[in-house]
Amino acid sequence: MEVTEPTPEALQRKLYFLLEQLQDMARELPPKYQMRVPIELLSGLANCLLNDTIFEIVKGLMEIQHVTEKHLFQQRLQIINNHTMEIQEMMKNTVPEQQEVQKTNLLRRHKEELKQTDMKLVLQLDQKVSDQQDTLEKAGVPGFFVTSKPIEVKVQMYLLDFILRLSKMDIPQ
C-alpha cells in the first residue's frame, strides 16, 4: 500500500484549522495566562501538530504519568496500612496502662514518616514533570522547556490540554 503525501493545500487547511482551534482555546484562558500564549507560540504549536507524532508522544507521556501516579499512591497506601497494623500489634502486645503512651508515640512517628514519604513522592512527581518537559522540548514542541516556575508550568499544562483536546477532534486531512 502506497502512502501518499498530503498536498500543500491540504496541509494549509489543516494548519489553519489547528491554529483557529488553538486561538479559540487560548481565548478561554484566564487573562494572566492569555498574555503568556502569544499568536507566535500558537502558530508554532499548530505547525508542530501537522505531524501526528506529537499527539502520540503526549498520549504516551500521559499514560506513563498515570502509571507513575498510581504506583506512588499504592506506595503511600502501603505505608498507611503498615502503620495501622503496627498500632494493632502494639495494642495486642502492650499492657493496657501503657497503651495510650505507646499509641501517642507511634502516631507521632507515623505522622513524621508519612510526611517524609509525601515529600519523596512530590519530588518524584516533580522529576516526572521535568522529564516530560525535557521530552517535549527535545521533540520541538513550542512552549516546552524544563522549568519549576509555577506560572510557566501552568501555561505548559494548558498547552498540553490544548494538544489533548485537538487529538480528540476530527482534524481535516
Task: Explain how this protein is built.
It comes from Papilio xuthus. This is Gonadal protein gdl. The chain has six helices and no strands. The chain has 173 residues and is an all-alpha fold. The mean pLDDT is 94.
Give the distance, in angstroms, between the N- and C-terminal Cα atoms.
18 Å
Q: What level of helicity do the residues show?
A: over 70%
Radius of gyration, CA atoms, in whole angstroms: 24 Å
Give the averaged pLDDT, no decimals.
94
Strand content: under 5%
Report on the biggest sheet: none
Order of helices and strands: HHHHHH
Low-pLDDT sequence parts: none
Q: Would you report the number of β strands?
A: 0
Total helix count? 6
Approximate shape: elongated
Task: Name the structural class.
Answer: mainly alpha
InterPro entries: Gonadal
Protein name: Gonadal protein gdl
Pfam families: DGCR6 (PF07324)
Family: Belongs to the gonadal family.
Defining key terms:
173 residues; mainly alpha; 6 helices
Task: State the gist of this model.
With 173 residues, the chain is mainly α.
Topology summary:
Elements: H1 8-27, H2 31-34, H3 39-48, H4 53-93, H5 96-138, H6 150-167
Helix pairs in contact: 1-3, 4-5, 4-6
